[in-house]
């Protein structure tokens, strides 16, 4: 059977979460340290460990069929490459920052200014919309230091917590785009591997859905069930089972992880007791 080739970042921010996602999809990869290639024992999949920045070219050439890559890298050098799925990790933004003490009114202030960045296309495309032409200085790493050493007036780089900007006495003035890890697909993928991709994507979706949800159970007196159910935006409708104790029931449902603390308070206020919140491993609609 033909194996689908997936590129995963060799080392860096995406590596661990990418491998965890494949593992949560039930895929076992024998991972010898420093190996550049690995084969899954229970899925027709081969993993190639590559640099994030090199992946768009490998996808374009069909050297790999799919990849887990930062969306920002595709925007910079892979706009011809399709995205099958957003993966919900490595969330960040690509922003312009300037020295904290400088004033900033609008993007026009950056016309003709020297901008240090590893994302020249992203900067130029963004500025083009405003008819502003910056003077790009291409740097591969430690971009945030550039203004402090007199190399640039502004920078464009990845921002997440903002602590790197803060440490370098910079402030964020324009958010150009938001990014997260994505599953990208080669335009040259074969129909056989498209089937493998569909199978993998089905599993990924089940894992991602489960990560966003919690299973909750609670007990409630029967006269409170109606009010409680109104609070529960479940998958379909909640399961209600009678308890051994007369007049009481157990209510089960799935709720979104993000909203569950607020819902929990409201459920208690409506008379729910013995609430349990349980992680879900996989969720298929
Ligand atoms: N501070 C951050 N917080 C969240 N996500 C980030 C952060 N920095 C980078 N990322 C995301 O992770 C991806 C990989 O970043 P990382 O710094 O590990 O690799 P890189 O140096 O850009 O690439 P390469 O693998 O080519 O060396 C980035 O393209 C971006 O999508
Ligand atoms: O807003 P923050 O949370 O501080 O994150 C932003 C920093 O993270 C990334 O660098 P990384 O740590 O990946 O180092 P690198 O330059 O070696 O890639 C990015 O290039 C920024 O410098
Ligand atoms: Mg980095």
Automatic annotation (TrEMBL):
Cofactor(s) the protein requires to work: Mg(2+)
Answer whether the UniProt record assigns the keyword Glycosyltransferase to this protein: yes
Q: Catalysed reaction per UniProt?
A: 1-(5-phospho-beta-D-ribosyl)-ATP + diphosphate = 5-phospho-alpha-D-ribose 1-diphosphate + ATP
Q: Which segments of the protein form a coiled coil according to its record?
A: none
Q: Which GO terms describe its biological process?
A: L-histidine biosynthetic process
Question: Where is the ATP phosphoribosyltransferase catalytic domain positioned along the sequence?
Answer: 51-205
Cell compartment(s), UniProt: Cytoplasm
Keywords for this protein: Amino-acid biosynthesis, ATP-binding, Cytoplasm, Glycosyltransferase, Histidine biosynthesis, Magnesium, Metal-binding, Nucleotide-binding, Transferase
GO MF term (any one): magnesium ion binding
The Histidine biosynthesis HisG C-terminal domain, residue ranges: 210-282
Pathway membership, UniProt = Amino-acid biosynthesis; L-histidine biosynthesis; L-histidine from 5-phospho-alpha-D-ribose 1-diphosphate: step 1/9
Its biological purpose is as follows: Catalyzes the condensation of ATP and 5-phosphoribose 1-diphosphate to form N'-(5'-phosphoribosyl)-ATP (PR-ATP). Has a crucial role in the pathway because the rate of histidine biosynthesis seems to be controlled primarily by regulation of HisG enzymatic activity.
Family indicated by similarity: Belongs to the ATP phosphoribosyltransferase family. Long subfamily.
What is the official name of this protein in its record?
ATP phosphoribosyltransferase
- Native organism is Lutibacter profundi
């Amino acid at each position: 059977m033909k194996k689908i080739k997936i590129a995963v970042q060799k080392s860096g921010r995406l590596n661990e979460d990418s491998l965890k996602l494949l593992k949560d999809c039930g895929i076992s990869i024998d991972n010898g340290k420093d190996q550049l290639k690995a084969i899954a024992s229970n899925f027709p999949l081969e993993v190639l460990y590559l640099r994030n920045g090199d992946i768009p070219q490998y996808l374009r050439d069909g050297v790999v069929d799919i990849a887990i890559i930062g969306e920002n890298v595709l925007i910079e050098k892979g706009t011809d490459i399709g995205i099958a799925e957003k993966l919900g990790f490595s969330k960040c933004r690509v922003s312009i920052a300037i020295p904290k003490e400088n004033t900033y009114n609008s993007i026009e202030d950056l016309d003709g200014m020297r901008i240090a960045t590893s994302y020249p296309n992203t900067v130029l495309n963004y500025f083009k919309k405003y008819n502003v032409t910056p003077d790009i200085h291409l740097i591969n790493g430690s971009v945030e230091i550039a203004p402090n050493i007199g190399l640039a007036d502004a920078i464009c780089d990845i921002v997440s917590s903002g602590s790197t900007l803060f440490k370098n006495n910079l402030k964020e003035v324009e958010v150009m785009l938001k990014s997260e890890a994505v599953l990208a697909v080669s335009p040259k993928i074969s129909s056989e591997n498209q089937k493998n991709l569909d199978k993998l994507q089905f599993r990924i979706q089940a894992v991602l859905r489960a990560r966003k949800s919690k299973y909750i159970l609670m007990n409630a007196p029967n006269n409170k069930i109606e009010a409680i159910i109104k609070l529960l935006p479940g998958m379909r409708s909640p399961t209600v089972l009678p308890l051994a104790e007369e007049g009481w029931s157990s209510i089960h449902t799935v709720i979104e992880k993000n909203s569950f603390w607020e819902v929990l308070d409201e459920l208690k206020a409506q008379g729910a007791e013995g609430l349990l919140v349980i992680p879900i491993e996989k969720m298929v609609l």
